[in-house]
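Morning. Coffee machine broken again, so started the prediction first thing and wrote up yesterday's gels while waiting. Chain of 136 residues, entered below exactly as on the submission form.
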Amino acid sequence: MNQNKYKSEVLRKHHQAKAKTKEARRDQAAERWLRIEDAMAAMGLKGHGSKKGLADKLGITAASIGGWKSGRYLPDMEKMQSIAELSGYSLEWLWTGKGPKRPSENLSPEAERILDALPNLSDERLEIILKIVESE
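Came back before lunch.
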């Protein structure tokens, strides 16, 4: 009887550890997806159809992109490298969330904020910014 109790306790702990690992993987996938969405916005892919737009740029199906979002599949490094190149973001940051967001991270915090805001600006506001930059 004591041995059965021990076995069930070992199995219970094993299942708990397995569940925590699975949850951690889901969390990592969700965080990675947020970084991919950020990169998509930097590429000008926003809103409805953005997954299809990214899929077209990468030569894969929108269903594959959906698998990344759900955490069912991991993007391969070749696709992540393409996303990094298209968005101007670093591969390390896209994959792990660590390291500089952009390869040339010797930017001031103000310049970083401006770069982050650019994909969300209207065409009218971008024109205003370009006129200011060109007049300097």
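The domain at 2-101 is CATH 1.10.260.40 (434 Repressor (Amino-terminal Domain)). Going to sketch it on the whiteboard this afternoon.
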